[in-house]
Design brief:
The protein is α+β, with helices and mostly antiparallel strands. The protein has 2 helices and 2 strands. The protein has a two-stranded parallel sheet.
Length: about 80
């Protein structure tokens, strides 16, 4: 897995997390201030292993580390319909 793939897939996880937070803002009460969030996808073991490296490197930073476990979002393919003017 290339670094670009890791970044892209983590951005997808982050976008899905933000959608969830907007719909369920009370979930933020569970996250300590100044925490480092790390997304660990349950259904993508290679990405999960890469992201667990981030957990290990963030330990000892003096800030809490929060692991967000979730499934990889499925891409939405919009249907485009052109309506005559």
């Amino acid at each position: 897995m290339t670094a670009d793939e890791v970044v892209r897939r983590n951005l997808d996880l982050h976008a899905e997390w933000m959608r969830y937070v907007f719909e369920n803002p009370s979930v933020l009460e569970q996250i300590p201030a100044e925490a480092t969030l790390v997304f660990v996808p349950d259904d993508a073991p290679e990405l999960a292993a890469e992201n667990m490296k981030a957990v290990e490197s963030a330990r000892g930073s003096g800030f809490p580390v929060v692991i967000i476990r979730m499934k990889t979002p499925t891409p939405q393919v919009p249907q485009i319909e052109v309506v005559a003017a």
